[in-house]
């Protein structure tokens, strides 16, 4: 049956056109129910109707759009199977939230869940027309009820189809039409086999009212008001970033006075329910209220006592605000503002723990209570959740989602999603690291694995693979990697030519031969973006068969490669370069130590060793040339753990040592990336995937320049060359570590390197500041980076190897979107790796009390950060020791903002000051979010703050100090505060 709908519209040019839309209605759309007598040809999905206390007859569920949108965490629970997803619901959901739509699509594609999509909008008996004066939402609600009613009539009473909706008006109408209907909360309450489902129900449109203190935030402006303010310039738009040091300080980056500046947002009222990552509308405060950065260490768990008594919480907040007071007359002020509205929420599921102090003893699971949840991310405020399993969740890592934040509620409200495991358990904490950094780590699906070569492990290079490739199996190729490396991306060779020059080759795994564009494996690799390396495990971008076998350039097996071949003079000048698909057979898979041993042994003259020695001579010249051009040699306090084989517990920690062979490999990988970038850009000037490193603004270095000046060192940051030269001269004879420390701190002044599409920015902005090169890309690691795989595809087209390719490969709009995704994945992978190191550092220091030397790398109003070179770790030392009689925190130090130092009667703490600290781990528990390193000052000896030798000798005394709060702000009980 064909239905036509015609309407008239006006085009942009002003012409009037008649538009006719055709809508086909059919009689042969199957219901999907097993055993249906009316559907002759079955597309059977719904096979196992359920029963419950509320509906004791066999039934299937039909959720409406809001249920899938708001309660997707509940719907994703394994208890929900045999669900009808109506076309109306799916289309509406796609327009409302694409991420949630994709989650529903995943359920639909899982055969075990039995989610059936019914095309009610194309079924002649379920399609309905929109009535006059009916809103689209009301029409869709009516369409959902009509489809549910049809299902019940269609199966002739054998089963019941239950409409699940949280819309009270929709339920009322459904009941009037004779349908069985429940809210989500009503329905899951009857699922006694899964009591946790009640906790997982999102509290949509529920408001919490603090009646005792009548607490209220300013009202958020409407969308139209924000839009008008943004257009007129009255408001600024930006992504809210909460300080990692101070939960009451946020900022956005926006244009102020025709210049991009950081706008600070300080205090709970001005933050106005904004959460880290939200896109917000901000109104600038008058210039008289602009202020210097706050500069204090302030964690919410340090100032909140966990009580839900408004007067105590308010008193705690007032004291927190007092600790942030700064010199309003300070010379260096920045713009300040307040949030007037939320443009886009960026909420995600959060991992964390229940605040034990907020849990009240209950009679059992039937009693639901409001408790507080601490997210692992210190930038997220504590969250109220209702749960019937509060006592059971104490000491466990759980996942919670935020539902909303009412203006009359001090904290956001949310709901429980699931339990991960016990606090402190290595497997649990590792999963938390992955979840917190949005790292996809689920096993590869059967659909992805179906695109692996059918031969599996027995796959070999055959004659048909050689078409269009050069055969380099006779060359003395070798790989040089860290010990234990199985995903070998790259290999090299070097040999002398008759004319006295060298032939140098960089051979990169040809992943693009196995991973074809747009298939399930490619899409999964794109979603993951990069391989993530944790201390104790690796989360692969590609299935293991490829990443650690067929694409890995292991020794003594034939492997497909993409090669970059140079002819170079004795002075490392490039005479010519060519790019080719190839097949290689590596003669040796070496570790850095093994390759270094060959370099150091003058008696070894075998071809592989001579190749490495030739590469090393050329690499030194290439490096010298880069340094002369202004490339930077920076540093980071990287450490490596030695793990017990069985327990995977850290038994030792050491700084990573870089050898000559590390630099050798690095130079030729950089050279390949630069030359490949040049090639693809010449072929695709508008759609090449490149990588740039923006020049950091001079203001980033101001504090560092001032600090090194006191050491008699001058940093010239005008160009990367002047900075590099300055760093080479930044030497303190009696303190050799100072040079590395300055390089570490210089690294922190840098901007983030990012992927970009060449057609979206001007060529001068391609510049890579850190490498001092005009153009750069990533080509050398396609096993572990999706960006490199894209570059391989571009290069294959550029050299004429790949003649049939999709236009999407050179679509600059889509490439820009992909770059944004990859930049995000790369950033998250880096942060996950650091968090994994932090986790294992805490495990290593557990039950240890260690005294070590360190250097001050940051000074704040109420403390300072210390880097301990031996372990590469960093932590805070609080300069406050206890609360004074008036409730404030006392300190033997005075903070001098102009010179950025803490001054006591007998000592001064400033950047690069050498101190001695005692290190131990404060275990997670109570209100503590996570185990964390605790540093306490030993030297200089500050009376009332520093610990003494007798206290260090006994770990028991130190733990007792920790309980009593000595060495950091003390959290007194409400009885003590009342006194």
Automatic annotation (TrEMBL):
GO terms for cellular component: chromatin; cytoplasmic exosome (RNase complex); nuclear exosome (RNase complex); nuclear exosome focus; nucleolus. Residues 59-172 form the PIN domain. Keywords: Cytoplasm, Endonuclease, Exonuclease, Exosome, Hydrolase, Nuclease, Nucleus, RNA-binding, rRNA processing. Residues 958-979 are annotated as: Disordered. Its cofactor is Mg(2+). SUPFAM superfamilies: Nucleic acid-binding proteins (SSF50249), PIN domain-like (SSF88723). GO terms for biological process: exonucleolytic trimming to generate mature 3'-end of 5.8S rRNA from tricistronic rRNA transcript (SSU-rRNA, 5.8S rRNA, LSU-rRNA); mRNA processing; nonfunctional rRNA decay; nuclear mRNA surveillance of meiosis-specific transcripts; nuclear mRNA surveillance of mRNA 3'-end processing; nuclear polyadenylation-dependent CUT catabolic process; nuclear polyadenylation-dependent rRNA catabolic process; regulatory ncRNA 3'-end processing. It holds the Pfam family OB_Dis3. CDD domains: PIN_Rrp44-like (cd09862). It is found in: Cytoplasm; Nucleus, Nucleolus. GO terms for molecular function: 3'-5'-RNA exonuclease activity; RNA endonuclease activity; small GTPase binding; tRNA binding. PANTHER family: EXOSOME COMPLEX EXONUCLEASE RRP44 (PTHR23355:SF35), RIBONUCLEASE (PTHR23355). Belongs to the RNR ribonuclease family. This is Ribosomal RNA-processing protein 44. It comes from Spizellomyces punctatus (strain DAOM BR117). The lineage of its organism: Eukaryota, Fungi, Fungi incertae sedis, Chytridiomycota, Chytridiomycota incertae sedis.
């Amino acid at each position: 049956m064909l239905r036509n709908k015609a309407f008239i519209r006006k085009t942009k040019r002003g012409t009037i056109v008649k538009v006719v839309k055709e809508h086909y209605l059919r009689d042969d759309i199957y219901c999907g129910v097993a055993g249906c007598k009316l559907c002759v040809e079955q597309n059977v999905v719904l096979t196992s109707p359920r029963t419950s206390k509320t509906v004791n007859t066999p039934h299937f569920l039909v959720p409406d759009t809001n249920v899938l949108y708001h309660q997707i965490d509940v719907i994703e629970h394994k208890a929900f199977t045999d669900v009808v997803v109506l076309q109306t619901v799916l289309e509406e959901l796609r327009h409302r939230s694409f991420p949630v739509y994709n989650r529903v699509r995943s359920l639909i594609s899982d055969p075990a869940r039995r989610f059936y999509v019914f095309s009610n909008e194309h079924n002649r008996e379920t399609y309905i027309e929109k009535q006059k004066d009916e809103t689209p939402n009301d029409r869709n609600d009516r369409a959902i009820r009509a489809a549910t009613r049809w299902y019940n009539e269609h199966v002739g009473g054998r089963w019941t189809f239950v409409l699940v909706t949280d819309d009270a008006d929709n339920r009322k109408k459904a009941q009037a039409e004779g349908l069985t209907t429940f809210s989500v909360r009503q329905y899951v309450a009857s699922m006694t086999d899964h009591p946790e489902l009640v906790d997982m129900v999102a509290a949509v449109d529920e408001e919490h009212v603090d009646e005792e203190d009548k607490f209220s935030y300013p009202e958020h402006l409407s969308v139209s008001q924000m839009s008008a303010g943004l257009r007129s310039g009255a408001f600024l738009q930006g992504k809210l970033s909460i300080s990692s040091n101070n939960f009451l300080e946020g900022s956005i980056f926006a244009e102020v006075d025709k210049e991009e500046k950081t706008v600070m947002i300080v205090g709970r009222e001005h933050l106005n329910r904004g959460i880290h990552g939200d896109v917000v509308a901000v109104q600038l405060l008058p210039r008289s209220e602009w202020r210097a950065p706050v500069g204090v260490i302030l964690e919410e768990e340090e100032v909140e006592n966990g009580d839900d008594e408004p007067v105590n919480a308010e008193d705690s907040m007032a004291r927190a605000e007092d600790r942030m007071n700064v010199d309003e007359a300070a010379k260096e002020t920045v713009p300040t503002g307040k949030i007037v509205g939320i443009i886009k929420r960026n909420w995600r599921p959060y991992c964390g723990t229940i605040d034990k102090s907020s849990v009240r003893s209950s009679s059992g699971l039937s009693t639901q209570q409001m408790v507080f949840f601490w997210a692992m991310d210190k930038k997220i405020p504590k969250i109220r959740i209702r749960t019937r399993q509060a006592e059971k969740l104490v000491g466990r890592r759980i996942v919670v989602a935020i539902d909303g934040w009412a203006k009359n509620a001090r904290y956001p409200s949310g709901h429980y999603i699931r339990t991960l495991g016990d606090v402190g358990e290595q497997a649990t904490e590792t999963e938390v690291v992955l979840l917190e950094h949005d790292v996809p780590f689920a096993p590869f699906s059967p659909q992805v694995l179906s695109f692996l070569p059918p031969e599996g492990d027995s796959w070999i290079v055959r004659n048909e693979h050689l078409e269009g490739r050069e055969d380099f199996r006779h060359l003395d190729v070798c790989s040089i990697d860290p010990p234990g490396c199985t995903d070998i991306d790259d290999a090299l060779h070097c040999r002398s030519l008759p004319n006295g020059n060298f032939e140098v080759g960089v051979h990169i795994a040809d992943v693009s031969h196995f991973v074809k564009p747009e298939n399930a494996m490619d899409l999964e690799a794109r979603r993951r973006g990069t391989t993530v390396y944790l201390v104790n495990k690796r989360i692969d971008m590609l299935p293991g068969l490829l990443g650690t076998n067929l694409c890995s350039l292991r020794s003594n097996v034939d492997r497909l490669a993409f090669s970059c071949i140079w002819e170079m003079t004795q002075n490392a000048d490039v005479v010519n370069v060519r790019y080719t698909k190839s097949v290689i057979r590596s003669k040796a898979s070496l570790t850095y130590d093994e390759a270094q041993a060959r370099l150091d042994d003058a008696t070894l003259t075998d071809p592989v060793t001579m190749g490495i020695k030739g590469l090393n001579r050329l690499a030194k010249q290439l490096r010298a040339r880069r340094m002369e051009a202004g490339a930077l040699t920076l540093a980071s306090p990287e450490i490596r753990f030695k793990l017990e084989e069985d327990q995977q517990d850290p038994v030792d920690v050491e700084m990573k040592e870089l050898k000559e062979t590390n630099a050798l490999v690095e130079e030729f990988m950089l050279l390949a990336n630069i030359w490949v970038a040049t090639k693809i850009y010449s072929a695709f000037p508008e759609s090449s995937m490149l990588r740039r490193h923006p020049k950091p603004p001079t203001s980033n270095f101001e504090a560092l320049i001032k600090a090194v000046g006191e050491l008699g060192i001058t940093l010239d940051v005008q160009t990367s060359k002047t900075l590099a030269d300055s760093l080479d001269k930044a030497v303190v004879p009696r303190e050799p570590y100072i040079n590395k420390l300055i390089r570490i701190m210089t690294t922190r002044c840098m901007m983030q390197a990012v992927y970009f599409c060449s057609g979206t920015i001007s060529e001068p902005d391609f510049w890579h500041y850190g490498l001092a090169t005009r153009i750069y890309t990533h080509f050398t690691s396609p096993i572990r980076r999706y960006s490199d795989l894209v570059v391989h595809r571009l290069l294959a087209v550029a050299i004429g190897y790949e003649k049939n390719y999709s236009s999407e490969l050179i679509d600059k709009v889509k490439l820009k979107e992909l770059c944004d995704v990859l930049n995000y994945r790369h950033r998250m992978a880096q942060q996950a790796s650091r968090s994994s190191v932090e986790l294992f550092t805490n495990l290593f220091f557990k039950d240890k009390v260690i005294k070590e030397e360190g250097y001050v790398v940051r000074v704040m109003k109420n403390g300072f950060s210390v880097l301990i070179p031996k372990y590469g770790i960093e932590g805070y030392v609080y300069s406050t020791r206890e609360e004074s009689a008036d409730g404030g925190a006392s300190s033997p130090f005075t903070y001098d903002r102009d010179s950025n130092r803490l001054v006591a009667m007998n000592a001064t703490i400033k950047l690069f000051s050498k101190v001695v600290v005692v290190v131990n781990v404060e275990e997670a528990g109570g209100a503590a979010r996570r185990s964390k390193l605790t540093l306490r000052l030993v030297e200089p000896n500050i009376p009332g703050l520093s610990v003494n030798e007798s206290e260090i000798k006994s770990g028991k005394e130190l733990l007792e100090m920790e309980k009593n709060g000595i060495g950091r702000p003390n959290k007194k009980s409400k009885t003590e505060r009342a006194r």
